[in-house]
User: Fold this.
Amino acid sequence: MITVIGSMNMDIVVQTDNFPVQGETVLGQLFTTIPGGKGANQAVAAARLGSNVHMLASVGTDSFGRELLEDLKANGVNTDSVMQTEEAATGIANILLSEGDNRIIVVPGANYLLTEANIKRMKETIQQSKFVIMQLEIPIPVVKYTLELCRELNVPVLLNPAPASGFQLEFMDYVAYLTPNETECELIFGQNMEATLEKYPNKLIVTLGSEGARYFDGTKHILVPGFKTTAVDTTGAGDTFNGALAHALGQSLSLEEAVRYANASASLSVEKFGAQGGMPSHTEVVKRLEGVSN
Assistant:
């Protein structure tokens, strides 16, 4: 079982030809709402691949909260540990797309009402988990408490340090795996990626987009190549990677095999619109892996 502790947001997406300037009104070509939040995305990714996934999060009692819960259930994620609160609205990400770029405003809402007491009440669920997956879109004190609890329970944590501004270096003592992208790695550790990787062998895994991912195995640097694909929407590729990595490690694959599996999963995820839209099944990932090896 994998327990994901993190954010659940409704992505509110608007597409327009030109970004409006101050005081300007423009017409848009697309409006849609898409289930998101890094926690929910990673939970769906792992569940679609076949893992038994429990989500621990907080949403409002509003329509967005209900939709997000139904989406998780439809994807096979256990939502018994998702708190519903009347004290705040469900978190949202307001995403404006134009000119090949985006501008995003995130309103955490109910995500920031997740407390240490909520985590403590789910101690038994956490204890039964092969992995706990976390991100940094919930209160940092709650992240720290959860890391300490997981170490006490001897449950490995895969931490995706996004947004990187919330990361604290002391977290490295508590995590089994840290999975920043290249930009996040530089923000957290500085510019010398090779020296940083050597400091955290088999623990720090840096994702490189279409190029794949790299880590240091204690003896040499390992670059696990990505997969050639035609990208439609890269949103959620990183979340797919993290969910897939935890799933693969939970199936007792070696780290290199698990990273390769995660790369294949991420490459499939970008071929459809939406963070969760292209998240693959295990069968689809195996086909991609076999297609490369033939």
Notes: The first strand starts at residue 2 and ends at 5.
